[in-house]
Amino acid sequence: MDALPIQEESGVPFASQADGKMHACGHDGHTAMLLAAAKALKGMEAQLQGTVRLLFQPAEESSGGAARMIGEGALEGVAAAFGLHVDPASPTGVISAKPGATFAASIASP
């Protein structure tokens, strides 16, 4: 999902098998984090009130991914949303947070 148009030349065992396409920007990490969150939340499902919706936003590096998802109804009925993104400029083991948009310059109306 959402691979970049780059030829993989890393030589790692888990390298892309699609010619001219590579997950070069952390999408494997993002996917692993989303799956880990899903597993953890499923494990405590009886303690949760309401429904949890997990989303993987396409085109987060460019504009339009969030707006398109919102326009297609991804947030309909959602009371709260939490986003997560890796930041290679942050030291390993550091988690930072703040309210509002962090990586997105703005959210366009759908």
Automatic annotation (TrEMBL):
| Highest taxon in the source lineage | Eukaryota
Query: What GO MF annotations does this protein's record show?
Result: hydrolase activity
What this protein is called in its record is Peptidase M20
Its source organism is Micractinium conductrix
